[in-house]
Specification:
single chain, Aspartate Aminotransferase, domain 1, Aspartate Aminotransferase, domain 2, 7-stranded mixed beta sheet, 4-stranded mixed beta sheet, binds pyridoxal-5'-phosphate
């Protein structure tokens, strides 16, 4: 059935009757009714009521090339006709998977020549856990099992992904984390800086890793994993000193470094991968989302030579894989997407043009009475909403200030996400300067409406 054949109400009723949404209070949503999104073009979405919405979240951090790109649509259609599916298990491969592996190696930092395909970021991180442990097994150090991550990290929602992640709400359901995963605190200066300068704090936060390694025993630690910028945790941009110090510590103890590039990859930070922006040299990189701009599901792990050589030369069979590892349609779309990113020069554009423009726009929002801090990195940004600008004192949790602001965004044709008291964005990389102005005007309007609520309700 096409969207126009049902009313919004009919869609909502059928949705509530059958569709269990991710990360959703099912009962509350059923009462309220979902917003039904029916089409998209460029950086805009339309809902079933005909409202136009500026999608400042790129779907879910994925639609890097924007909606409606004909090259991706054609690539999918062509591949579906030619060969819609074949697996890569039984000593077989398909041309799109081979070509995408080749192109991924080309755009990745030089230590990466191999890729293991998965269907999503979560599956990519499950692969990381199995691969890292297998690596140490092959090297005769099977006691190296522990993977260290950070509180408030997001690495997916499978058992391993949710365990690697540091979301307390997720750990509270279903006996997580699984054994062998440990967490240190995040490099979030506003909460953990305690009066230190940002750069000094970056070093302190990185050294929490060294403390943890010493507590566990270096001979038991397999790897450290982190997102260059924590996305779902609220666009937490670490101080510039953080990642180089993490790299030094991993090198010192011979621990593998894993960069989860599911959000930061494919131009988001102004380089092809976030690790390049932050000056680290990971052994493994998880990717998903932007690899196909979200048009079809695809994820995987870029495997650096340190790990690949051991797996290939000494490992025998690696007992791991997915039906959709190297799915030909997904890989054909991935290829078209990466070629388009290159053709449009999107990575350079984020670095030299729209990234700095967004940084300027966010700097101007710092003057708003509700905004305590405004940060941007490439095309991702966060506004910290505070009760008191001078002390950065937060609103009481029960006010739900982020959700109040998000409500205004929804009502005013803007998709912006709330993470606690942080309002975050990650618009498509094709956004223009004029559209950044339009987005900033909308954000300012929603902040004003939120401030009016604060004043009316006496929240400060
Ligand atoms: C950094 C990071 N890693 C992994 C994932 C999980 O990816 P997926 O939802 O495709 O399983 C996400 C999803 O948002 C993510 O942001």
């Amino acid at each position: 059935m096409t969207p126009s054949t049902r009313t919004t109400r009919q869609w909502q009723d059928a949705d509530a009757a059958h569709f269990l949404h991710p990360f959703t209070n099912f009962q509350a949503l059923a009462k309220k009714g979902s917003r039904i999104i029916t089409r998209a073009e460029g950086i805009y979405l339309w809902d079933s009521e005909g409202h136009k919405i500026l999608d400042a979240m790129s779907g879910l951090w994925c639609v890097n090339v924007g909606y409606g790109q004909q090259a991706l649509i054609d690539a999918a259609a062509r591949q579906m006709k030619e060969l819609p599916f074949y697996n890569a298990f039984f000593q077989t491969a398909t041309p799109p998977a081979i070509e995408l592996a080749e192109l991924l190696a080309e755009v990745s930092p030089p230590q990466f020549k191999h890729v293991f395909f998965a269907g999503s970021g979560s599956e990519g991180n499950d692969t990381v856990v199995r691969m890292v442990r297998r690596y140490w097994d092959i090297l005769g150090q099977p006691e190296r099992q522990v993977i260290i991550s950070r509180h408030n990290a997001y690495h997916g929602s499978t058992m391993a992904g949710a365990s690697l992640g540091g979301m307390s709400g997720m750990h509270a359901q279903g006996g997580l984390p699984i054994p062998g995963i440990e967490h240190i605190n995040q490099p979030y200066w506003v909460e953990n800086g305690h009066g230190l300068g940002r750069d000094e704090f970056g070093l302190v936060a990185a050294r929490w890793l060294e403390e943890k390694i010493r507590i566990i025993g270096p001979e038991k630690v397999a790897a450290f994993i982190g997102e260059p910028v924590q996305g779902a945790g609220g666009v937490i941009i670490p101080p510039a000193t953080y990642w180089p110090e993490i790299q030094r510590i991993c090198d010192k103890y011979g621990i593998l470094l894993v960069s989860d590039e599911v959000i930061c990859g494919f131009g988001r930070t102004g380089r092809w991968f976030g690790c390049e922006t932050f000056g680290m040299k990971p052994d493994l990189m998880t990717f998903a989302k932007g690899v196909t701009s979200g048009y079809v599901p695809l994820g995987g792990v870029m495997v650096g030579e340190r790990v690949a050589r051991v797996l290939i030369d000494q490992g025998g069979e690696f007992e791991h894989g997915y039906t959709y590892s190297g799915h030909p349609v997904a890989c054909a779309v991935g290829l078209a997407n990466l070629r388009l990113i290159r053709e449009l020069g999107l990575v350079e554009r984020v670095h030299d043009d729209v990234g700095p423009c967004l940084a300027e726009a966010f700097a101007s929002l710092r003057e708003h009475p509700l905004v305590g801090d405004a940060e941007a990195c490439g095309l991702m940004g966060a506004l910290l909403l505070v009760r008191d600008k001078a002390s950065l004192a937060p609103f009481p949790h029960q006010v739900g200030i982020g959700m109040v602001c998000r409500g205004h965004c929804f009502a005013n044709g803007l998709i912006m996400r709330a993470v606690g008291n942080r309002m975050i964005i990650a618009p498509p990389l094709v956004i223009t300067r004029t559209q950044i102005d339009e987005m900033t005007t909308l954000i300012r309007r929603c902040l004003d409406l939120t401030l009016a609520d604060v004043q009316r309700e006496g929240w400060r």
